Amino acid sequence: MEFYPEIVAFEGTPFALNRIMLIRLIVLTLLIVLFSLWTRKFQQANKTQNHVPGKFQLMGEISLNFVRKSIAHDQLGEKDGDRFLPLLTTIFFVTLGMNITGIIPGFNIAGTSVIGLPIVMAAAAYVTFIYAGVKKHGGHFFTSALFPAGVPKAFYVLVTPIEFLSTFILRPVTLALRLTMNMIAGHLLLVLCFSATQFFLFNTEGAFKLFGAGTFVFGFAFTLFEILVAFLQAYVFTLLTTVYIQLALSDEH
């Protein structure tokens, strides 16, 4: 499966779309619809006494509370956690939705397997943690990050470039690359297994067809594993974003 498929709509215009772009648009549309329905259910529940939540509403509450309590509140506390919750919720569900398309028949590739989208989300995380630090500490945020307290002044020649690289360059770069590389690796494994299955079942004879059954089993196992990876990568991306915000807000700055 190509990571840069041919244009499928609006070719020759600034709005040209390939299959990966269409997948991203479909996922975003589904997420908007999903959150709109959840919001409507929550509003109805607030207006109705003795309301018993249905399965759909319960799923929404569990999903949103996972991000709110297990990530935002756990790292930032209730006040700051709720302040940055819209961004963290968006990052988590967009990443999860884009990741999971890699194992959906007809899509067969993650929307995050091309680095453009991970870069956009990493940039959002980057701007947010810098904003959080400057908002709370002003210009002292940069000086404390580049010139850590307790370090002999002579060592700042070595320490300051390292701190600049690790804090302001590597954080967004590693966020984007980690997500992209994991989704590319998973995609390639699935393509390899199922391509081998097709080859052994339809292009070989005799006992060699048994290898097709084996590669199919491996492909199915990797598909289940990719579901776990899709969730874990969404969790890790959101968690690291939260940790960077927490470090920017810490009183050490």
TrEMBL record:
Say yes or no: keyword Hydrolase present.
Answer: yes
Primary localization class, coarse = membrane
The family line of this record is: Belongs to the ATPase A chain family.
Q: Which GO terms describe its molecular function?
A: hydrolase activity; proton-transporting ATP synthase activity, rotational mechanism
Task: From the record, give the transmembrane residue ranges.
Answer: 20-38, 84-107, 113-134, 183-202, 214-247
Location in the cell reads: Cell membrane; Membrane
| Source organism phylogeny | Bacteria, Bacillati, Actinomycetota, Actinomycetes, Micrococcales
Lineage top rank: taxon: Bacteria
- Any single GO CC term annotated in Swiss-Prot or TrEMBL for this entry: proton-transporting ATP synthase complex
Which keywords, in A-to-Z order, does the entry hold? ATP synthesis, Cell membrane, CF(0), Hydrogen ion transport, Hydrolase, Ion transport, Membrane, Transmembrane, Transmembrane helix, Transport
Report the protein name in the record: ATP synthase subunit a
Q: How does it sit in the membrane?
A: Multi-pass membrane protein
Which purpose does this protein serve, as stated in its record? Key component of the proton channel; it plays a direct role in the translocation of protons across the membrane.
